[in-house]
Amino acid sequence: MKKVILESFGLDGLRVVDDAVVEPGPGEVRVRWQAASLNYHDLAAVMGMANPRMPLPQVPLSDGAGVVEAVAADVTGLTPGDVVTSRFFPDWQAGRPTLERLQRVTGETCSGVLRQQQVVTADALLRAPEGMSIQQASTLPCAALTAWRALVVEGKVQPGQRVLIQGSGGVSHWALVFARLLGARTYVTSSSDEKLEQLAALGADELFNYRTQPEWGRAVRRATGGEGVDMVVEVGGAGTLAESLNALAIGGHVSMIGVLTGIASTVPTARIMALNATVKGITVGHADHQRAMYRALDGRDLSVPVSHVLPMADVAEALALMQSGAHFGKICLKLGDS
Ligand SMILES: NC(=O)c1ccc[n+]([C@@H]2O[C@H](COP(=O)([O-])OP(=O)(O)OC[C@H]3O[C@@H](n4cnc5c(N)ncnc54)[C@H](OP(=O)(O)O)[C@@H]3O)[C@@H](O)[C@H]2O)c1
Question: Residue 52 and residue 163: Cα distance in Å, rounded?
Fold first, then answer.
């Protein structure tokens, strides 16, 4: 069996090595990972930006899907042959986030899924929704769950409400899927007209190129007849919040998710006050959120585009591709035969 380890920060620090197979101990399960998907967090982790104190060597990547191979005698709820996915915060089962619950991060402070097999505690896995390909299942633990939490748990989006979604990456695609499932009208931004056309083909209602329309927030507001959007899926962060607030309706909700344009900026506090806006930071979600999302996805034909599938050994190329922004939706890695 093989795994990829990050020996030092940077794409050159990734190396494929042998990985010994061990039997699961009490409370543990051995999973044969078959697919992994990339998140921006994985790129930031590998480059040393997410957590400069990340323990090295480390197996990167938070999001994987595979098949249970062996379970300890005391484990209930999982049996060999079950298709499972990883979890981003393995110690956050439910309730409020606490430092303790958020301490272990898959692929950052504990082993990630860029390996062909792994022994983990049973509560670090969840059975995947029925009827989803293994690659699609590998996009769920971080990207989909973040979008689910933003729209369903925190934003409580209702049919007919307006949702602004920035960009065409993993979180944004899942946000589009859930917004459509909830019956919302979607306003999407992208740097590329070609990607906007592709998003329209996936059901996006109103399209805005944030490169050619730097005042896209006002353009979105105009497109709503001046009322503004009820919710913003804010993946840009520091450089996009002000425009997002220009697009927001009175009483609207901004889900602060991403850091694509930086980690700090001037906050238009008076506008937040005048709008009676809620600006809510979120970090992925807990196991109960993930279970609820999987129930919603069970047996439904809902998925996001996977623009690239590469072999495990090409992880550096895959991360460079993500860095370039050339992808549309998700980039996946093949870890097994699937
Ligand atoms: N807080 C959390 O729980 C959480 C969870 C997951 C992700 N995140 C964060 O969310 C962000 C997106 O993550 P991801 O994994 O979805 O990344 P991704 O798949 O790489 O997607 C990034 C996309 O964002 C768009 N983008 C880049 N700069 C932008 C800008 N200035 N304005 C609007 N859109 C822009 C680009 O879309 P176009 O090519 O169409 O322009 C790009 O493809 C990252 O900052 C990540 O760290 C946070």
Answer: 35
Both tokens of residue 214?
């730097």
pLDDT at 160: 98
pLDDT band at 41 (very low <50, low <70, confident <90, very high): very high
Pocket of ligand 1 (CB under 6 A): 39-41, 142-143, 146, 166-172, 189-192, 195, 210, 235-236, 239-240, 257-261, 282-284, 322, 325
- And the tokens for 64? 């994987």
Centroid of ligand 1 to alpha carbon of 142 (angstroms): 12
Which pLDDT does position 336 carry in this prediction? 81
CATH architecture assigned to 2-139+304-334: Alpha-Beta Complex (3.90)
Residues facing 166 on adjacent strands = 189
Question: In this structure, which CATH number among 2.40.10.10, 3.40.50.10420, 3.40.50.720, 3.40.630.30 belongs to the domain 144-281?
Answer: 3.40.50.720
Residues of the chain with CATH 3.90.180.10: 2-139+304-334
Measured in Å, residue 236 CA sits from the centre of ligand 1 at 6
Q: How far apart are the first and last CA of the chain?
A: 16
Residue 8 per-residue DSSP state: S
Distance (Å) of CA 213 to CA 209, 219, 235: 6, 8, 18
Mean pLDDT, residues 259-272 taken together: 94
What is the share, in percent, of the chain residues with pLDDT greater than 90? 99
Which residue carries 């991403």 as its tokens? 258
